[in-house]
Write a structure and sequence with these properties.
There is one protein chain. The chain is α/β, with parallel strands linked by helices and 756 residues long. Among the domains are: 495-616, no CATH class; 632-755, no CATH class. Helices cover 37% and strands 14% of the residues. Strand 4 (258-263), helix 11 (266-279) and strand 5 (283-287) form a beta-alpha-beta unit. Helix 4 (101-127) runs parallel beside helix 11. The longest helix has 27 residues, at 101-127.
Length: 756
């Protein structure tokens, strides 16, 4: 039997998977059914209403859940075969199918115990209102009673309940003893969400892109979208943070009249419904895929929509599922939707069908669609169907909305419009510091353009927004006049470095070369990645230093090798034949090729290489396409700003870098151009063309970089060109000395501002 007094002993007896470890709080001497003491009284600034802000010790509850669950996990091996199949289906739907058997059992057990705690909590809530008898220590009775009273699918039977039927009920004693903990919370949605995050490691939530909405962001979205008499729908509701009342202790006019929650996961519905039940928020739940709901089912009853959709990338969706929803939404929208669209984009497309003119919708998503090409159709869709009230971008360098997700968050505020309506103005709001949600809401509704203490507000007529343009640039519009400048592509061409097809096979360190006895005639020197370049130029000493550090500085680059077929398929066939033959002793011929043939043989086997397009488009599969060393190297992604590097060697590069080719400029003119490309001025100019990816990384494609306005050194005065070239040389030298290069960059900016 488990209870608070012997819980610590159970932890010592149960082995723990490091991936599933939970920080252990002190839980000694905690008496059951003891309400959590409230925090000090605070006054809500918006309404002047006193309220107790009370939160639950989710670390404590997580420790109890994981300890009980990890003790019960082995019981999953003993369940009937019919239940095994249901458990396997459950694991697949929750992204656990790639986990080891032991890890899957622990994850399912943890979900089952959490399921029991939530249902016990709801049972206790109804009991205290006289709607249910004294608490029963029986899984089936709890589930059935709560389902009858709650009348929501989240409270119904599921595979997790059936698992608990096969364990000793006494094991649930400590869980049942803590059934009142969440009752003391004034923010149960937030607490339940944090509890789920504590119990299920990030790795296994990330597979479904499950990330909790911060409560202040949820309040902002909910209060903007819905009025007191509104019915609000919450697709992908999770723990219900977006649809929870703003003031849980008092029924105020800001609370929704009714909430409709939608989720495929029965556990998610249980979490959301538990939270809304504890709030006293009227609601109903739909256990289904959002895309399976026809618009006619909800349109007449719906007033507003709030949504934190899954962030699953398009490539991570199954081909069959992706084709189905893509075809479905192309038909309903009349648009050609990019097959690269992530799942959250499809949520935005589908949501419009449930809204009538003047209904509002608020989404929290990654910001990538504002600049990526898949987003062009989505932006066109927004322009056609909505008055786009505002986009709010949270600067990832200073304000991370999601604590546990490497995602740059974007809030989108929309008001459905008729075909004849125009959209008015759209506010692009950048938040650089953590501020109150009320401040953001005021900016969305009435913000005047310009800099603020916490960020920037820009207003753009919706009629001037073009879906082919990069809307990320509108959060900080460039004031530099570049209309008279040529594009960079008129001065040179930019190409991506060769793709290897398998970096681990083709890119080698000196140690790997030595261990495999590879002749250098089969290799080429490379700069593998931009992180190997510290400054603004690349010299022989840089390559030698990287080699000494054990970095990958060699590229497998042989001429045609005797007895190695040109395709991987033929090579594998030869390997299969050779495996069936016994080689006579002393038959190895030291022809200078035997070592590289053996290296290729082991590599094909180890990495499971197949005849993909990358390999089949080469003259022979084992040599990446050759490209001459470039005079200028460019990082293909950066967290700060792109760096343009003068290559002083004959060393080549891979696809991690871009290169400048077909340069017609003199050496001095090229250095002047590099001064501009590495300047703060260019950093502002390129904003309109780059994309900021999740996590704050900037990305730009070669063809996009060619479209960026650039200075034209041949048309500038010789004095200016010489000055800029000299400053670039000074910038190189300053960086090599590890001195502060900002004074040099400031002087470059002064010259450029005078010129422009």
């Amino acid at each position: 039997m488990l209870n608070e007094t012997n819980l610590r002993r159970c932890r010592t007896e149960t082995s723990v998977d490091p991936e599933l470890a939970v920080t252990e709080p002190d839980i000694a001497n905690v008496s059951p059914i003891t309400p959590t003491a409230p925090d000090p009284l605070w006054i809500n600034k918006d309404h002047g209403i006193p309220e107790f802000s009370r939160s639950v010790d989710t670390d404590h509850l997580a420790e109890i859940i994981t300890t009980v669950a990890d003790r019960l996990a082995p019981a999953l091996a003993e369940i009937p075969d019919s239940l095994h199949e249901r458990v396997d289906t459950w694991c697949l739907s929750h992204g656990y199918n790639d986990a080891t058997t032991s890890t899957r059992r622990r994850l399912v057990a943890r979900q089952a115990v959490l399921n029991r705690l939530l249902k016990a909590t709801v049972y206790e809530w109804h009991h205290r209102r006289g709607e249910l008898p004294e608490f029963p220590a029986d899984t089936w009775e709890i589930t059935q009673s709560v389902a009858e009273v709650g009348a929501n699918p989240g409270f119904g039977e599921c595979v997790l309940d059936y698992f608990l039927l096969h364990v000793d009920e006494s094991e649930m004693e400590v869980i049942d003893e803590n059934r009142d903990r969440l009752l003391a919370s004034t923010q149960p949605a937030e607490d339940i969400g944090r509890l789920y995050e504590a119990v299920i490691p990030k790795k296994y939530r990330q597979s479904l892109s499950q990330f909790r909405t911060p409560p202040d962001i949820g309040q902002l979205m909910r209060l903007w979208a819905g009025e007191s008499d509104n019915t609000v729908v919450d697709p992908g509701m999770g723990a219900g943070v977006l649809s929870s009342p703003f003031h849980p202790d008092w029924r105020l006019s800001t609370d929704s009249a009714r909430v409709i929650g939608i989720d495929q996961s029965q556990l998610a519905l249980l979490m959301g419904s538990t939270a809304l039940t504890l709030y006293g928020q009227p609601h109903e739940l739909l256990e289904t895929d959002f895309f399976n709901i026809p618009s006619s089912d909800l349109q007449q009853d719906l007033d507003a929509l709030v949504c934190n959709p899954p962030y699953t990338e398009g490539d991570a969706l199954s081909d069959l599922y992706k084709e189905r929803i893509n075809t479905q939404l192309e038909k309903t929208t009349g648009l050609e939707i990019s097959a690269r669209s992530p799942l959250h984009a499809y949520f935005i497309y589908h949501s419009r069908a449930f809204l009538s003119p003047s209904d509002r919708a608020a989404f929290i998503t990654p910001q990538s669609f504002l600049s990526n090409r898949y987003g062009e159709s989505l932006k066109q869709f927004l322009l056609d169907n909505y008055a786009i009230k505002a986009f709010v971008q949270f600067n990832p360098e200073s304000y991370c909305v999601f604590d546990n997700a490497d995602t740059t968050a974007l809030l989108t505020f929309l008001e459905a419009k008729s075909d004849s309506e125009t959209g008015g103005e759209t506010r692009f709001i950048r938040v650089d510091e953590k501020i109150e949600s009320k401040t953001i809401r005021d900016a969305v509704e009435n913000g005047e353009p310009g800099e603020t203490e916490w960020g920037i507000i820009n207003r753009v007529p919706q009629s001037e927004l073009c879906p082919e343009k990069n809307w990320q640039a509108l959060f900080d519009p460039v004031e530099i006049d570049t209309s008279h400048l040529p594009t960079l592509g008129t001065l040179l061409t930019i190409h991506r470095g060769p793709t290897t097809g398998e970096v681990n096979l083709f890119c080698l360190s000196q140690q790997e070369v030595d261990e495999n006895n590879l002749d250098e005639r089969h290799l080429s020197r490379i700069v593998r990645k931009p992180s190997q370049i510290d400054g603004y130029d690349y010299q022989e000493a840089n390559w030698k230093g990287a080699r000494e550090k054990g970095e990958e500085v060699w590229l497998l680059d042989p001429d045609q090798i005797p007895e190695v077929p040109n395709t991987i398929a033929d090579f594998k066939q030869e390997l299969s034949k050779a495996a069936r033959r016994e080689a006579p002793e002393g038959s190895v011929i030291r022809d200078g090729y035997s070592e590289v043939r053996e290296y290729l043989r082991e590599g094909v086997i180890e990495y499971g290489l197949s005849d993909t397009s990358t390999f089949s488009n080469r003259p022979y599969w084992y040599r990446p396409r050759r490209k001459d060393a470039t005079r200028v190297l460019v990082q293909n992604a950066s967290r700060d700003q792109f760096k343009f590097i003068l290559n002083e060697t004959d060393i080549r590069h891979t696809s991690a870098c871009y290169g400048f080719y077909d340069i017609t400029l003199s050496e001095t003119e090229l250095k002047a151009l590099l001064a501009y490309l590495n300047s703060h001025v260019f950093e502002e100019v390129v904003r309109e063309y780059k994309q900021t990816r999740d996590g704050g990384f900037d990305k730009i494609e070669p063809d996009q970089l060619e479209q960026v306005p650039a200075i034209d050194p041949p048309k500038m005065s010789g004095e200016t060109v010489n000055t800029l070239a000299g400053l670039f040389d000074e910038l190189r030298q300053t960086t090599r000395k590890n001195d502060d290069c900002n004074p040099v960059l400031d002087r470059i900016n002064v010259v450029l501002q005078q010129e422009l």
